[in-house]
Amino acid sequence: MGGRDRACLKWIDGSQSRKKRSKKQSRNFRQSKREPQDKLVEEHINELREICYPQSPSDEVNITWFEYFERNYAFFSALLTSIGASFFRSRFLDFVIEDIRTGWERIEGKKNGLNEDIMIHFFAPAYVGLVEWWFTNGMPYPPSVMHKQAEFMLDMNLS
User: Fold this and answer.
1) Cβ distance 31 to 37 under 8 Å?
2) Which DSSP helix (H) or strand (E) runs through 50?
3) Is the pTM of this model over 0.70?
């Protein structure tokens, strides 16, 4: 192998390490931009949790999730069109699964021989998808209609 070949290999190696550094810097930049957004998502999920499970009677809030989403429409509609959408979907799905597990008896499904895990993992993504559809379509129905319709479908299958 001649000297020229070694220099070429060295240049290729240097180029690859520059590419790796560049990718790492780009990933770190995207992550640093996403972190404040992720914290806001966590805050909203915690507020939804407080709506469902107030710590005391004085903490009770009489609004539905859809009313909460409507009040925070600007944030959620922007979030769902950004790189934070998958993080929100993931965190909200975890929260909905938690809510179904702790807040619904699932008697009807069990009476009909449905597996609990299958019920939960069918209805939770459906609910998340419904919320996302509602935002991405400019909230075509008022929160009260969304709440009543979603609650009816869930009651029919999970109560």
Assistant:
1) no
2) helix 3-52
3) no
Condensed to tens digits (0 to 9), the pLDDT of residues 63-122 reads 888 999 999 999 888 888 887 888 889 999 999 999 888 888 888 788 888 888 999 999
Cα separation, 10 vs 87, whole angstroms: 40
Alpha-helix runs per DSSP H in 53-115: 65-71, 73-79, 85-103, 107-111
Pull the structure tokens for residue 9. 């290999």
Pairs from 38-43 (Cβ < 8 Å, separation ≥ 24): 38/84, 38/87, 40/75, 41/79, 41/84, 41/87, 41/88, 41/91, 42/91
DSSP conformation class of 59: G
Counting every residue written for the chain, the total comes to: 159
